[in-house]
Amino acid sequence: MMSLAFVVQPTLRKGQQTLSHGSLSVLSRTLLATVAPHTYMYDKAVPVKHTKNVHSPRKPLLRDGYKSHQLPIETLSSSCNVYQAEYFNSGLHLEPPDLDWKYLCDSKHTEEIEANICNRKGVGDIRKVVKLWEQLQVSANVDEQRCLKKELNNEAVEIPNKTHPLSPVGDDSQARLLEEYGTKVEFKFRPKSVVKIGQDVDCLRADLVGYTTGPRSYYFKNGLAQMEQALIRFTLKKLINKGFELVSVPDLIHPEIIEACGFKTTGDRTHVYRLEPQHHSNTCLAGTSEMALAGMFVNQVLDYSELPKRLAAVSRCYRAETGTEKDQGIYRVHYFTKVEMFGITADETGNESDQLLQEFFEIQKEICIDLGLHFRVLEMPTQELGAPAYRKLDIEAWMPVKTFYGEISSTSNCTDYQSRRLHITYRMQEGTTKHAHTVNGTACAIPRMIMTIVENNQNRDGSVDIPGVLQQYMNGHRVLQKPDHPLRWQWIKLLRGKQGHKN
Length: 503
What we know:
Layout: E1 3-5, H1 21-34, E2 48-50, H2 84-90, H3 101-104, H4 110-119, H5 126-138, H6 142-156, E3 176-181, H7 194-200, E4 204-205, E5 219-220, H8 222-241, E6 245-247, E7 252-253, H9 255-260, E8 273-274, H10 277-280, E9 284-285, H11 289-295, E10 301-303, E11 309-318, E12 335-345, H12 352-370, E13 375-379, E14 391-399, E15 404-413, H13 417-422, E16 425-427, E17 433-435, E18 437-445, H14 446-456, E19 464-465, H15 468-471, E20 479-480
Parallel strand pairs: 6-11, 10-16
Antiparallel strand pairs: 1-2, 3-13, 4-5, 7-9, 8-9, 11-12, 12-18, 13-14, 14-15, 15-18, 16-17, 19-20
């Protein structure tokens, strides 16, 4: 028996231009509930064929090995799946993560995994995962199995990625210096902050913005607004010339996609802005275009000949971060523009994703060198990898006003951490499939790059030299300087008269 999933174009009433968001949501939920409970819905106006009955057992939980534990993946999903309820509510259906159960549940690896967890901030309990797995194998009670499956899934997804042998163990103080480029600028005057310079040349407003938006916000205008666009155009031109595919991404992402990428959307420590589900169908503001770019390939089987894929995107990034006094100004803000690199590789030799990581890293260095920055390259330690990264390299630029090296770029190899959760696979010529690897890297984070350029290129008179590679994108201007007739702001306090006072 064969089932079909169709993308339906509803008929509009005469004079009706669009279908309401609520109607679409109801329609998608109805289709998912009535057509097939495990049917994938794609944004293609063609039927998607399933070779098996939707109610037939799916692929084994463990594809190779563990012959005595050939439980169908249905046993770790069904109605108890922690993910499915929210997925159906949002119109998204994503299967449970296809984790490496053979590796996770083999007691031979328990100590190795436990040590890795300990080195990476201690999130995850592998012994509990193994215990739940063993309990599930001997349980004969259906209700007990359902609870065990749910708890096992919940615990297993908390286990972080493996760690590259070159990653130092410990916190950020253990980062290893790999390279250093350029020299520190020696000022013969006391340098000003980017906020002070921006105010003086009428290009930046970072104070008194709370009346309009809130803390950790800013306005770029005039020269810095032009520099923002110049940095974007300069970076994109470089990436496109190197074969990257440019993608315009959405800013609203389902929380399940974000979680699958390795970012928490709930809890006290989350940096994700989550919109009210009753008004926005359970979506979040993307903290990076990596989320949308990874989500673009959810449930897809790529052809081996297509790999590696190199994608670039420009997006607004929204982060509910807090920081210290060092982070004031535009160094750590709640929203900013960023040019992102994202890649997908095969995993045949075991080196493909690390090679793409190095490629991204070389592009980052090239951008910083072209802009004339003094920066250093760090091999990041285990506690700075987060859950998804196997290896992470950071670039830190010298910030002369606060006299510290601040992160302006990073690149990470996530191996199959994200692809197992998003079901991104590739098919070889003989028909076998395997999980792809994903790599991501910052090409240009605009506010921090502007801060670095402005503070290091300032002159005694308050002007700022524009890097040569950006001048062609800024109408040939070489210097940011005070306007002849600057717009001056004067804030006044409105006094409300006493009750009964006649004006």
